[in-house]
Amino acid sequence: MEEPLDALVSIPRSAVSAVMHLRSTVPAGHPSAEILGEERMGTGVAVGAHRVLTAHFLVVGAEKVEVVGFDGQKYAVRKMHVDHETGLALLALDGPSLSPASLGTGDESTPGLPVFLLASVDASERKGATGHVTKVGPFETYWEYMLDRAILTTIVNPGLAGAPLFAADGCVIGLVALGLASVGRYSAAIPIDLYWRYREEMEGLVARRPPRGWLGLYAQPFDGGVIVTGVVSDGPAEEAGLKRGDVILTVDGQEIGSLRCLYGSIQRRNPGDEVGLQVLRDSSIIPIGVRAADRNVFFA
Q: How far apart are CA 109 and CA 270, in angstroms?
């Protein structure tokens, strides 16, 4: 049985049953609580009989996560793997078997592809929306996060973050992690091929890949360069004296003209390395050395 949304695609019942509601509780003292809050709600999608994939920021630092199916069945999370680089989190559940969604390979996404998403609104309600893929390519945003191949769509998410993005045949091709404001690009999704690439690592079957350097800053493009819009409390950037309003000119002597250039320079360094910045502050150029950290450890 299918439930039509509009003329573009219709939503298979099997897709609806795979969409889960998440509620997480995070201690007040956790580094993520200041920005993301102590209580978070979102969406996940069943990718196995006892596995749910979601956006990492919904569960990072959580001391308790509750997952609720469309039928009201509640599941306890016994283990989770949070991946800051991809933006994904995999939850291992106790309880009855789930009805997993069909997963694509990651090769399906092309501009013009009709797609739909399903998101939880609360524990008992799911909403859907349809649209098209507008771009598949590099993407970066303000919290030291970038992807080489994000999926941008015309869909405005009607519910909570973490919603699965489906092709018209009902296969999951990505996970919506961010709402955007630009015309024709209303949502950004993490491609499902990143789950396939790191699934064994997320399951704990192989060792975690080596961490990349992280400074704990928030940044935005500014006049052909990059400006610091904030720093993570007690993170490396704050401890080194980086401040909101600093314009980053160079990293280790390399001129910085974009977020991607900045993040690439940082991520090529290892945790423990000193990253040399030159910043413009109040008409003065100031050198600042920041000791890169491992954000897996910082946010553990």
A: 33
pTM of full prediction above 0.85: yes
186 vs 286, higher pLDDT: 286
What is the C-alpha to C-alpha distance for residues 48 and 135, in angstroms, rounded to an integer? Answer: 29
Q: Domains of the chain, with CATH numbers?
A: 9-100 (2.40.10.10), 102-200 (2.40.10.10), 217-298 (2.30.42.10)
DSSP assignment string, 225-291: EEEEEEE-TTSHHHHHT--TTPEEEEETTEE--SHHHHHHHHHTSPTT-EEEEEEEETTEEEEEEEE
Q: What is the DSSP letter of 8?
A: S
Please tell me the distance from the alpha carbon of residue 289 to that of residue 32, in angstroms, as a whole number.
Answer: 24
| pLDDT on residue 185 | 65
pLDDT beyond 70 at 54: yes
